[in-house]
Amino acid sequence: MIRFVRRTMSVLDRPARIRFAAFAVFSLLVAMLEALGIATLIPLSRLLLDEDDSGTSVIRQLNRVINVSTPGQAAAVLAVVVLVAFTVKAVASIVLLRWAFGNALRQEARIARRLFASYLTAPATYHFEHNSGEIQRTLNDSLIVVFRRTLPVVLAAAADAFNLLAIAVVILINDPGVALLAIGYFALVAIAYQRGIGGRQKVAARRAHEEMAIQYQHVQEPMQATKDLAILHREGYFVERFYQTKLALAGAQRQLLFYQLLPRQFLDFAFLFGAALTAGVLFATRPVDQALVGVGLFLMASFRLVGPLNRVMSAATVSRTAAPAIAQVIHDIATLDGLQAPREDGDASPLEPCSIELQDVHYRYGPDYPAVLKGITLTIEPGDDVAIVGATGEGKTTLLDLLLGILQPQAGAVLVDGRPMASCRTSWQLSIGYVSQQVVLIDESIRANIAFGLHPDEIDDDQVWEALRLAQIDGFVSGLQDGVNTTVGEFGVRLSGGQRQRLGLARALYHRPAVLVLDEATSSLDAETESRVIETIAQLRGALTIITVSHRLSTLKHCDRVYFLRNGRIGSVGSFEHLRATEPEFARLLILAELSAPGESMQAANLRSSGLA
Known about the structure:
Elements: H1 2-10, H2 14-49, H3 54-62, H4 71-121, H5 124-129, H6 132-174, H7 176-223, H8 226-232, H9 235-285, H10 288-321, H11 323-339, E1 356-363, E2 373-380, E3 385-390, H12 396-404, E4 411-416, E5 419-420, H13 425-430, E6 432-435, H14 446-450, H15 461-470, H16 474-478, H17 497-510, E7 515-519, H18 527-539, E8 545-549, E9 561-566, E10 569-574, H19 576-582, H20 584-595, H21 602-609
Parallel strand pairs: 3-8, 3-9, 6-7, 7-8
Antiparallel strand pairs: 1-2, 1-4, 4-5, 9-10
Helix pairs in contact: 1-11, 2-4, 2-6, 2-10, 4-6, 4-11, 6-7, 6-10, 6-11, 7-9, 7-10, 9-10, 15-17, 19-20, 20-21
């Protein structure tokens, strides 16, 4: 439990650590009220058991503070003190824990925000190596386990630990023999319990942590392929796979729940056994009257000890359950902090039209993978209209990601206006309008999807309509009942593929970029719409730098230069007509592209032309 607290405190900011330290101090003060109640309860019990001897002593002690003359008056005074002490202690504990729990949940939100921002800004290489199910598990389950299910329990246990200490001190002062017997006995009980289940619980916690990530993965994958599954009628495989994961998770969580409920049952038995053991020892070693007082003291102390001890043992159990979760949070924070690329000082702003240059750039996706790019050198000047083409697997997407600043070269340099991209990456990226092959739309309005990531109050509606017009979709949107306020559904499910693609183009044009990057941007458009969009893009020539990747080679006739990739290198470069005349592989791909219908891939066209489709 102490290790859990130490590791959790390591991810909190300094103000939060100070607040939790203050909680510890106030818990100690509240424990003093517990000590006062127990210290008063002991003479009260002795007064009730022995009016002749102890009663006189109690009355004499009370007369120093308040005038009492009979055992009844003394008992009444002591009873009031006990009642007030325990009542104030209970109220103070509730208020203190409520404050501490609020702090814990606010820290969950703060760390979730920090992690989410880090995931979104992490380099692309991080996402190559991590499943999105792992990220969702950390953001959702791991943080909930640490800050909702465990930290509040541990905080309450910390307060209980102070209460245990206070009770032990009071009993030790009043009857060292009984105190040592009770403390030693319950210490052995706690140690035996923790040793008995600690290892098994760690294994179950680790298993549950791993199964949770697999569960997220097994939900996400088929939900993104519902149409394929409906056609193939293979839903059963994924349902069974999900069910087996849930069974494995249920098995691990069943063990964890059992271990969390075990302390109460274990302590109930230990209390009864301890009472019998204490009675036997005291009656064997003391006179009957002293033995009765000792047994009464043990029972009273045990009554106050069992509850806090149960919660402390339960907290230790829960903290072991949370060990994989807090370890994952710490690991992700440390890893992501180390991966964050430095950003330029001050508020970054889009660059004026500028050149971008690649100098002898090399890239591979890992030591076990072949090089994707080998010595790429090219320069794109402001206002250029260039295309990057090549067969599948030749590195077009990788080269585009380097130009976008998504990837960093492992050898060579990427320069923006002669400066290393690392020194102005944010400003360069703010200058880009990017249209991907798979446009991701959120389940909000068309307006929110065009001005992606802006607060509703920051959106310029004139710019929205201008972008829609340039993307040749303003007529469709104006015909909708709610216009730009129409909700598109999750991932744009209420729109056709071509409509989603045009909204993606409108999004790219909304902020009036200096560079327009088209990554298969017209692949889902019909021939007529594609022709209009290409005409629109052609009208932007000179005003924007345009970089296009497309398998529809016939759409690249207007480009100033076409870079043809072969074996990870620039095999040829020149105008569209020059490559058609001098590059046989380009000419072959062009024939396949001309055979393909709008929206059909070259692979499909190749199959159709060979009679296989």
